[in-house]
Specification:
130 residues, mainly alpha, 2 domains
């Protein structure tokens, strides 16, 4: 039961993080209120390095949410162990694994930020904007 709840929670949180912002269009005037294709943002030129960096940031944020859920789950298991040594060890193992995962996530974020910034500087001389 708890695993199903966690899976549903992760799905909802993941979709809410990755969901794009949608603008409402007045149906009586069509696309003129949105400014046509230019108002929808289709003419915006964005460097591929920046796009890849943003995608990686979204994925790393999602991994941070997974870390938070694992810590809450481990705390729940530990608090409801009622002195059962096997459940306490399971909670400690989950917590240890989650912290190791967080260290890996932070290292990946640091490396990604550094590499994307250097690539952007090498291609157009600008510094990273995130």
């Amino acid at each position: 039961m708890l695993k199903r709840f966690l899976a549903a929670f992760l799905l909802v949180v993941g979709l809410s993080i990755a969901a794009p912002t949608v603008q409402a269009i007045n149906l009586s005037t069509g696309l003129t209120d949105a400014g046509g294709p230019n108002g929808a943002g289709y003419d915006i030129e964005q460097d591929i390095v920046v796009t890849i960096g943003l995608i990686i940031q979204i994925l790393i944020a999602f991994l941070g949410v997974i870390f938070l859920v694992l810590v809450i789950y481990a705390g729940f298991v530990w608090m409801t162990a009622a002195g059962d040594a096997k459940r306490v060890e399971k909670a400690k193992g989950t917590l240890t694994t989650a912290v190791i995962g967080l260290v890996i996530i932070l290292a990946a974020y640091s490396i990604t930020t550094f590499v994307i910034g250097r690539l952007q500087f090498a291609t157009d001389g600008a510094t990273s904007d995130y």
